[in-house]
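User: Please predict the structure of the protein below. I'd like the answer in structure-token form so I can feed it into my own downstream comparison script.

Assistant: Understood. Taking the following sequence of 129 residues as input:
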Amino acid sequence: MKSKIMTLTETAAERVRSIMKESDKEFVGLRVGVKNGGCAGMEYTMDYAVEQDPLDDVVEDKGVKILIDPKAIMFLLGTEMDYKIDQLSSGFVFNNPNQTSACGCGVSVEIKPASMNDLTGFDKPAKPA
């Protein structure tokens, strides 16, 4: 069985399903990506998608559809998304093997993109029709 580009822990999947269920809007999935920003250079992005872009790479894990922008795939390869709760905060966290450092603010990260050789053993991104 091939690995997925990105996975969710059961805790993260439960939280995503709960948020989507409580919303008045109908979502097709969770859009995850990265963008330039912050003191370390990049930030993870998450948004609830009302429609799927034809170029999105789609990963389904634990009943949640994850839509990934093709430009983010090499930065997210092998990432596990979790949901953590502690005494002072709660939120989604990304356990990313490509992340090389993080800013003290906890928002921005430095990510080294995976190489094409790292795709061995992973489901390949879908080619646009």
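That's the full token string. The two ends are 25 Å apart (CA to CA).
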